[in-house]
Write a structure and sequence with these properties.
Elements: E1 7-8, H1 15-27, H2 32-39, H3 43-50, E2 54-55, H4 58-68, E3 92-93, E4 101-102, E5 112-114, E6 119-123, E7 132-139, E8 157-164, E9 166-171, E10 174-178, E11 183-187, E12 192-197, E13 202-209
Antiparallel strand pairs: 1-2, 3-4, 5-6, 6-7, 7-13, 8-11, 8-13, 9-10, 9-12
C-alpha cells in the first residue's frame, strides 16, 4: 500500500479538526503509533495532523475518520460564534418532535475543510446528516483526491456534478473527463481518484451516501 503522508503547512490553525481526531482516537483507546500503523502513515505525520501543523490529503482524511468510526460532520468546526449575516435565517421546521431546526446554509457561513492535496470541502447541509456527505468540492489547479498516483476507496456511493473547470475521474481502470454540467455516480468501493485537468480550478457538488455501509441507499 502506498504511504500517505501529510504536507506541512505554514502556521495554519487547523487545530480544531486535529483536536477532534485526537479526542476520538483516545476515546477508542488507540495509541498514536497504533493508529498510524493501521493507516500506513508515520506517527509523526499523524501527530502533525492532530496538532494542526499539517493537513491530510482527502485519501488520508477518509482513512482516519473511517478507522475511527467518525462522520465528517464531527470534523467541521462549529458555527457558534462565527461572523455571519447577523440575522436569523427565518426558515425552520416545526412539528418534528426535535424542536426548531435550521435548514438553510448561507453562502458565507459554510463550514470548510482544506486538504493538503489542493482540495477544499464546504459543507452544504447546515446541521449535518449521519452517513450523508453533502459538499461543494473545489480542486485547485494540480489538485487531486490523493497524492501521487494513489487511489482511495471506502464504502458508500458517490454522486458528483461539475460546475466549473474540467475534472478527471478514474474509477477502477476507466477514466472519465467531466466538463461543466456533466455528472457521475459510482460505487465508492471501487478504487478511485479525482483530479483537475487544465489550468482552471474545478468546482463540483458532491454527495457520498452510505459511507459507513449502514445506509440502505448505498445499495442503489
Amino acid at each position: 500500500m502506498a504511504r500517505m503522508e501529510a504536507a506541512s503547512l505554514p502556521d495554519r490553525p487547523d487545530g480544531e479538526i486535529g483536536k477532534r481526531l485526537r479526542a476520538r482516537r483516545e476515546e477508542a483507546g488507540l495509541s498514536l503509533r497504533k493508529l498510524a500503523s493501521r493507516l500506513d502513515i508515520s506517527p509523526s505525520a499523524l501527530s502533525q495532523i492532530e496538532t494542526g501543523r499539517s493537513r491530510p490529503s482527502v485519501r488520508t482524511l477518509y482513512a482516519i475518520v473511517t478507522e475511527l468510526g467518525m462522520s465528517f460532520d464531527e470534523l467541521f468546526p462549529s458555527t457558534a460564534g462565527r461572523s455571519g449575516r447577523g440575522r436569523d435565517s427565518g426558515i425552520t421546521l416545526h412539528g418534528l418532535g426535535h424542536g426548531l431546526k435550521e435548514i438553510v446554509t448561507r453562502a458565507d457561513e459554510r463550514n470548510i475543510i482544506e486538504m493538503a492535496s489542493g482540495v477544499t470541502w464546504e459543507r452544504l447541509n447546515p446541521t449535518g446528516d449521519h452517513d450523508i456527505d453533502f459538499l461543494q468540492a473545489t480542486y485547485d489547479v494540480g489538485g487531486a483526491s490523493s497524492a501521487g498516483d494513489s487511489y482511495m476507496r471506502h464504502s458508500g456511493r458517490e454522486y458528483g456534478l461539475v460546475l466549473e473547470g474540467r475534472l478527471k475521474v478514474t474509477v477502477g481502470f476507466d477514466e472519465y473527463e467531466l466538463e461543466p454540467g456533466d455528472s457521475i455516480c459510482f460505487d465508492s468501493q471501487w478504487p478511485h481518484r479525482l483530479e483537475t485537468l487544465g489550468d482552471v480550478p474545478v468546482k463540483a457538488i458532491w454527495f457520498v451516501i452510505g459511507r459507513y455501509g449502514s445506509d440502505a441507499r448505498a445499495d442503489w
